[in-house]
Amino acid sequence: MRIVLGTCSSNPDFNADCDCALVNLTPAYAGQILERMQGVSSLAKNNASLHEAHYWDGDAAYFQATFDDDLDEMLIEARDTYVVLDDKVELPEEAFKRVEYTHMVVSVMGDELEVFWRATPKGASLYIRTNPLPKSLIESAAQ
Q: Which of 61, 78, 111, 141 would be a feasible disulfide site paired with 83, CB 3.0-4.6 Å?
């Protein structure tokens, strides 16, 4: 399952053309994410000061969302959340941006956990953060 997540930048005026991120949510990767979430949940139960756990993880590919009108319309939906990308939809290679310091973050929100990805665009002094991926979507992808 290919998921497109909207992004936000640590600089509200500049995002280095990293408008969205593509995550290939295979059953194996979804299972790994769920294992990480379970591990963080166990740690958080014994340590109330745990806020986030970061995993070096370059599985989110950041890209600029300017293609054709049909695809742009679909990606507008992803700005505030996510969209599941049809297998037939091809994203142009030149739209993808180079990033570094890529990682997946499991964030603790009280009793709830959320997962998102974060990276720094190459040569920029800011970070890009994806929208969170719903746990229900991760669970369905893991099956």
A: 78
